[in-house]
Amino acid sequence: MKRVHLFDWHKEHAKKVEEFAGWEMPIWYSSIKEEHLAVRNGVGIFDVSHMGEIFFRGKDALKFLQYVTTNDISRPPAISGTYTLVLNERGAVKDETLVFNMGNDTYMMVCDSDAFEKLYAWFVSIKGAIEQYTELDLEIENKTYDMAMFSIQGPKAGDVAMELFGIDINELWWFQAKEVELDGIKMILSRSGYTGENGFEVYFEDANPYHPDPEKRGKPEKALYVWEKILEVGKKYGIKPAGLGARDTLRLEAGYTLYGNETKELQLLSTDIDEVTPLQANLEFAIFWDKEFIGKEALLKQKERGLPSKMVHFKMVDKGIPRAGYKVYKDGKEIGEVTSGTMSPLLGIGIGIAFVKPEYAVPGVEIEVEIRGQKKKAITVNPPFYDPKKYGAFREE
């Protein structure tokens, strides 16, 4: 079982710690609902050091990343990020990632906790294949176990950033980053998050007592200091440590996809188009068509043939909590399946994401979700599920 730098702190303070994507992680400290509402109405802090970080260095790093990801990595200046996808040859999503231009021909890819190992192996194999024919000035390094990553989210996150770093995060564009220091500890701060709220995330290196390499193990003094400093400064704003339970309900209320649920590769080797592609998952905004990238040919074929299914958001009309795997119906006929679902802590109703036949993947369609043997009424909607004028990163103050 993998563990983050501050596992011992979480084990002492969290009420529930269990496995997630191969990591032993805090699920909640007080309750999912309390932590969820703290983020929606104030501020919360998440330890997301289980997220992967892969570094690419060298004069050919940009060209390589342009080939293995879908978006235009060349656009943002240092030290800013780009949301992009990694696809397999048949167009399915291997992972959703952020790629930060760190300057000096160096890039940091932030990827999902259960995808970084396969991505690292994938990139190394592609590099090796290219080097059979031409030389590459490229180094690829997996630094997941070395990097600590904390996410501070909520309408009061900006106040915390101002006190700690003297930075107004509202003056940063989304995914813009800066080099900062906290009492001598150097780190990268980016305006980013996975909750739908305004917020920022910090990245820095530190010793990890659970590093798989025994020679790199040590006390996480920097991580513990930064974590406790953020909690101390955020106390006046009602900050709460939040676990992965609230992180999931928050991202679902915002309508965000989750790798392994909405995005995945099924490795359907018998077909030239795998599932699930970004066209099916409403992620075409992350594709820069004016370049060549792995999976592009399959996506163009899918555009010509039409989509077998498409992602849609829905909220329950009848009482019931949708869960992944539940069947979706229209006029008594099965049309799809739920991939994520929960009880919205903010709205008090069941909400979810499903993949259905494309003709039903529009807002305002009455559907039914089979919950414990009974078909319950629901209706498709546009995300986010909350009123964006009252909640979220662009709420009207």
TrEMBL record:
The protein's enzyme class: transferase
Pfam families: GCV_T, GCV_T_C
Subunit structure: The glycine cleavage system is composed of four proteins: P, T, L and H.
Name of the protein: Probable aminomethyltransferase
Gene3D superfamilies: Aminomethyltransferase beta-barrel domains, Aminomethyltransferase fragment, Probable tRNA modification gtpase trme, domain 1
Organism of derivation: Thermococcus paralvinellae
Transmembrane segments: none
Gene responsible for this protein: gcvT
Stretches assigned to the GCVT N-terminal domain: 6-291
GO cellular component entries: glycine cleavage complex
Similarity annotation: Belongs to the GcvT family.
GO biological-process terms attached to the record: glycine decarboxylation via glycine cleavage system; methylation
